[in-house]
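README, section 4: Worked example with a bound small molecule

Sections 1 through 3 covered apo chains. Here we extend the same pipeline to holo records, where the ligand is supplied as SMILES alongside the sequence. The molecule in this example is 2-acetamido-2-deoxy-beta-D-glucopyranose. Nothing else about the input changes; the structure line simply encodes the ligand pose together with the chain.
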Amino acid sequence: MILPNMPVLCCLLLGLASVAFADPIVSIPNGELQGLQLQSPELNEFYAFLGVPYGQPPIGDLRFESPQPALPWNGTLDATQERDGCLPLSNYSFYPNPGPKSEDCLYLNIYTPQLNQSANLPVMFWIFGGGFVGGSKDYRYFGPQFLLVNDVIVVTINHRLGPFGFLSTADNVILGNMGLKDQNLALQWVQSNIKYFGGDPQKVTVFGESSGGQSTGLHILSKKSRGLFRAAICQSGCSITDGFQPDPKTYAYAVAQQIDETITEKNSSLELKNFLLKQPAETLVIAAKAVGTSGIRPVLEVEDDEAFLTQPFYALVEAGDINPVALIVGATSEEALGFIGNEDQLAGVAEGYDEDWSTLVPRHLRPIEGSNLTEIGELIKNTYVGVNGTFADDLVATLEYYSDNINVKAAIKMAQLHSAFNPAYLFQFSFYGSKAQGHYNIEGGGKAGHFDDVPYVFNMTTYPLVTDADDLCRKQISRLWTNFAKTLNPTPAGDELLQNVIWSPVTPDNIQYLDIDDTLEVKPNRKVKEYATWNYVYDTYATKPIITF
Ligand SMILES: *[C@@H]1O[C@H](CO)[C@@H](O)[C@H](O)[C@H]1NC(C)=O
Ligand SMILES: *[C@@H]1O[C@H](CO)[C@@H](O)[C@H](O)[C@H]1NC(C)=O
Ligand SMILES: *[C@@H]1O[C@H](CO)[C@@H](O)[C@H](O)[C@H]1NC(C)=O
Ligand SMILES: *[C@@H]1O[C@H](CO)[C@@H](O)[C@H](O)[C@H]1NC(C)=O
Ligand SMILES: *[C@@H]1O[C@H](CO)[C@@H](O)[C@H](O)[C@H]1NC(C)=O
Ligand SMILES: *[C@@H]1O[C@H](CO)[C@@H](O)[C@H](O)[C@H]1NC(C)=O
Ligand SMILES: *[C@@H]1O[C@H](CO)[C@@H](O)[C@H](O)[C@H]1NC(C)=O
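The generated complex, written as structure tokens:
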């Protein structure tokens, strides 16, 4: 989209409250970019460059391939409007009114508080969440103002989703993890280009939530991402969170069979790939949805020059065979509230647990041969509701079990393992603000669900903050995150905004965490009993090497 010589009208189209003034132009090796100047009450102005291509459109024969770097252009590229997002399998309610989507989606947004090539500002690189099947980087979901006020650059990126990002034939025909390779290419783009926007390529922090947090964690493991960043923030998802496709080949064939039922595993993976390459993108979306969105996950690739990840995640973290970066990792106080829709559903979940304790055993434990799942489930049940208790009688414990299993135990484990090699700070987001007040909770249980932290990190037009307490919380979390991006320490000095809290990293023997609530407070591990049970269960019953925890 090359701009004709004309003034900027885009802000009206974007629905931005602010008005564009100047025409910021930045030249990068690929060509010239026309961005936007925007205003915010707390910044005099800031600059946005939207829809900047970092990869060639992964269309035609490039579908399922590793992304290729973007090509140069002549003239001035219009970076004043969003480009298409990547084709999703799910339209999540927390990303309403999705804009246009297509396979041509490898774009990123850059936001900077100043256009000064000598400014050398730290760079925060955001990977959105959405289960690897939905979401996009767009300004209306991820407004950068809270972070920019602390003098950093923010980059938000799109990456391929669904089968386009994660299908794999478990050989080197379709390797898999294309979506993660897109993120990696965007990180390389930042290394080569961010200085033209005033950013320091030596000070890149990758951060993300949910599948974005998981992706962030996986960049710590991939040799391909070594040297591209020095710090990471994993919110409600990290490299060892359950979110891994152990059998991508079966999934890939099932998708093809949805389209043509004569295809079987007797067809070679090359036949399968050629067949899928001929399908319209929309056909692939429908087929993958029918087989199941939870089949779309990172995979262990076969060894190949282009592979992003080939080794079991947990084993890499445990061995310290990782990229040397500082880490912030954590979860919300009651992750489950973001997954179980209401109290009736929660009661149904509790009854299901009581009826069959084996359902408490994580799917990804990969229990060793001969394990008695009911017996393992009983151990877990006893930890959460006691030998005589039931989940039906204890919905607080039901929430806690679900939250721990889905995200919390992995966050604690991640902090502990990482801390043996590099700094690791653990947090819990417990704040009961306007966002969390939008859903149910159970008296006596935590009140902040999955995703409730995100509107305090980004200015989401979909979740406006209304109270003074909201305002304080977003100022605090932004200060913590940007301090970390600048200095690798979230609390480098006494700071009244941060209530003078000193948040020290975890050590293998001291799993303390920062509780982000109405106040900021460092607390000892509150999951000692539960964590001990989980450790015992994985040590005793999991097939080694452990992949996720
Ligand atoms: C957040 O975004 C809204 C809508 O774009 C805007 O009106 C508001 O000023 C922004 N808040 C801050 C602190 O910049
Ligand atoms: C840019 O312009 C030059 C000279 O007209 C031309 O040779 C080249 O192909 C153009 N490149 C692109 C990407 O359009
Ligand atoms: C998401 O919503 C758009 C627009 O309403 C629709 O065209 C698209 O089919 C939906 N996608 C899915 C995967 O449901
Ligand atoms: C650009 O940044 C450098 C380094 O921080 C600073 O010395 C200089 O004054 C800045 N220039 C402008 C025009 O703000
Ligand atoms: C699958 O294999 C069968 C039997 O060899 C063949 O007839 C068919 O064309 C193959 N399908 C595709 C899509 O290649
Ligand atoms: C598995 O364990 C349960 C509970 O301890 C027990 O009732 C059941 O008999 C065991 N099943 C087998 C096959 O050993
Ligand atoms: C469980 O119930 C039995 C029978 O009522 C009782 O003897 C036992 O003390 C109870 N155990 C616990 C831990 O409360």
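What to look for in the output: The pocket of 2-acetamido-2-deoxy-beta-D-glucopyranose (ligand 4) is lined by residues 116, 118-119 (CB under 6 Å). The longest helix spans residues 395-419.

Section 5 describes how to batch many such records.
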